[in-house]
Specification:
By secondary structure, the chain is mainly alpha-helical. It has one domain. Helix content is 84%, strand content 0%. The chain is built from 2 helices and no strands.
Length: 183
């Protein structure tokens, strides 16, 4: 049979030997000190730099956001000012248009009054010319007719002028006594 080792009751098989524990503790302490002295400061430095970069990025982003908000506010203000200016210009243009229309109407009215007055003056002048021409022709015809009726010559200018004036007066009184057709 194989020899069996009997373990003493004082030794615990789960616990390592005391020299192993001491050497393990020394190694752990050395590793801990190396990590504490060299690795941890480098790690903290890297984390601090990263935190600063992140914080700087956040501050920069906030600054850019503030500038963007300010630019947006300025743009909206300029847009509102532009709209107000456009509305003002439209109103001015409408007022100027209304003024131009009123001026043109007044000018057209003045021009039409001038044309009517000129036409009336021309009509009156033509009427006077027609009256003079009619007096002359009627006078000549009346004198010729009277000469034929009376049987003597009425070549006296004063007498013929009186006869013509009386004849025209009679014609005018007859035409004014008769109503005008179509009126």
């Amino acid at each position: 049979m194989t020899p069996v080792h009997i373990v003493a009751a004082s030794e615990n098989p789960l616990l390592p030997a005391l020299p192993d524990i001491i050497w393990s503790a020394v190694c752990l302490l050395i590793v801990f000190l190396v990590v504490w002295k060299y690795v941890l400061p480098a790690f903290n430095k890297t984390l601090d730099e990263r935190a600063e970069r992140i914080q700087g990025g956040i501050e920069k982003a906030e600054k850019v956001q503030a500038e963007a908000d300010q630019a947006l506010a300025e743009y909206q203000k300029q847009l509102a000012d532009g709209r107000a200016e456009a509305a003002r210009l439209r109103a001015e243009a409408q007022e100027e248009g209304a003024q131009i229309i009123a001026d043109m109407k007044a000018q057209a009215h003045t021009e039409s009054d001038r044309i009517v007055a000129q036409a009336q003056t021309q009509i009156e002048a033509e009427r006077q010319a027609a009256m003079v021409s009619l007096r002359s022709e009627v006078g000549t015809l009346a004198t010729d007719l009277a000469s034929r009726i009376v049987g003597e010559s009425l070549t006296d200018d004063q007498r013929s002028a009186n006869v013509v004036d009386r004849f025209i007066s009679d014609l005018e009184s007859q035409s004014s006594a008769q109503p005008v057709k179509g009126a």
